[in-house]
Structures are given as structure tokens and as C-alpha cells.
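Exercise 7b. C-alpha cells:
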């Protein structure tokens, strides 16, 4: 992958998927709920800062905790000196002792995961230059070999870093909750029912997922 582009102040430039407007039009025509969500949050766009390590690290930090809690931990984590609030580096993570990393509010398990991830990047253990040519499932298979990276984390990577258009993260609690509220009047929803709803979203299920998230939390998180 190419080096992350930065602005004059050294911060990463935000990039929006080129297909976003086409996706919004497609979803609005195919799905009445999506039409309403796009109208309501149409000015919001998925934006990526284009750094693979930071995206995966933020996903690990956010595992099994709320968006608000994850942001709080991330802010304390960055304050340890691992990078800027937008970009962190594997080398900076690896030089910090475990107790220091734990002081940011990270569990011992998440510290292990972050350090293992940092080692994979520092030692060149990932096929980064081939990701653009690889299918979604092939990338997921590669990433889940890293400790602490499960399917959900890999899917967040596909959405927020590679900006793949048709990812459906059925393990995401927010997606399932949002489908329940928007399509089933708050009734419990099975994975099969969620998948059936999402059939109408293809080939832009990532974009639809993004708007379902916005229905729960209007303020987007940028990984």
C-alpha cells in the first residue's frame, strides 16, 4: 500500500470512497428505510485516514466496549506517546512496557493483541502490497491469523481502511440493533433476518451499514 498522504501540518488527509454518491442513490431507490436515513444523514460520509496499522489498532481497542468508552481509552493510549491522535506507529507501541500500556485502560489481553499486531507490521508479516488485488475473504483469512483479530475486526478494516463497498459485519452489535430498530420496530433480529434485509443493499452493504450506525449515533467514528 502507498504511504499515507498527509496535509501541511503532517496530519493524514481524510479520504471518502469514490462510489459513495452512487451507493446512496442505489440504496435510496431500493430501500425505503435507507432512503430516509440517507436523507437524514446525507452530509455524513465514511472517511479513512489511510493507515492500516492505526485502523486495526483502533478496532482492537474498540472490541466489546461502547464507542464512547473506546474513544476514551484511545485518547489515553495516544497520550502515552505512541503517535498523534490520528496515526500511531508499531515501533512506538513496542517500546512501551506492559504496565504503561495498561495505564491507558487497556486490558492485559488487549495489550497482548496490540503488541502482536505491532510486531506483524514491524517485521513485515503481512501482504500489504497485495491487499488491493485480494478479495475480501482472502484478506479476512490473513488478518484473523493475528492474535486478537477476529472476523469483526477484519471487517472493520475492510470498511474503514480498504473502503470495500459490500461488507456486511453481522457480528456487529450496532448493526443488528440498528436493523432491529429501523426494520422490526425494536423486535429481536436473527442473523438470517439481518442478512435478508441486507440483500437489498448489495452491492453497497458497507454504505448501508454505515447509515444504520448513524441512526444509533449520528457522530461517526473514523478509524
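Sequence design result:
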Amino acid at each position: 500500500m502507498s504511504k499515507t498522504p498527509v496535509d501541511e501540518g503532517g496530519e493524514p488527509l481524510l479520504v471518502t470512497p469514490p462510489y459513495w454518491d452512487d451507493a446512496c442513490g442505489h440504496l435510496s431507490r431500493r430501500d425505503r428505510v435507507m432512503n430516509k436515513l440517507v436523507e437524514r444523514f446525507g452530509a455524513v460520509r465514511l472517511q479513512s485516514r489511510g493507515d492500516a496499522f492505526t485502523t486495526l489498532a483502533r478496532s482492537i481497542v474498540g472490541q466489546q466496549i461502547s464507542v464512547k468508552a473506546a474513544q476514551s481509552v484511545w485518547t489515553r493510549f495516544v497520550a502515552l506517546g505512541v503517535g498523534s491522535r490520528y496515526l500511531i506507529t508499531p515501533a512506538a507501541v513496542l517500546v512501551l512496557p506492559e504496565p504503561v500500556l495498561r495505564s491507558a485502560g487497556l486490558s492485559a489481553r488487549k495489550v497482548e493483541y496490540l503488541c502482536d499486531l505491532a510486531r506483524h507490521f514491524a517485521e513485515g508479516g503481512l501482504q500489504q502490497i497485495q491487499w488491493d488485488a485480494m478479495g475480501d475473504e482472502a484478506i479476512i483469512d490473513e488478518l484473523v491469523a493475528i492474535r486478537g483479530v477476529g472476523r469483526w475486526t477484519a471487517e472493520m478494516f475492510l470498511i474503514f481502511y480498504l473502503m470495500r463497498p459490500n461488507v456486511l459485519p453481522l457480528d456487529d452489535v450496532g448493526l443488528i440493533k440498528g436493523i432491529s430498530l429501523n426494520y422490526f420496530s425494536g423486535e429481536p433480529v436473527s442473523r438470517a433476518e439481518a442478512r435478508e434485509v441486507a440483500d437489498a443493499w448489495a452491492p453497497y452493504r458497507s454504505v448501508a451499514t454505515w447509515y444504520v450506525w448513524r441512526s444509533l449515533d449520528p457522530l461517526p467514528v473514523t478509524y
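Instructor comment: The mean pLDDT is 90. Residues 67-82 form the longest helix (16 residues).
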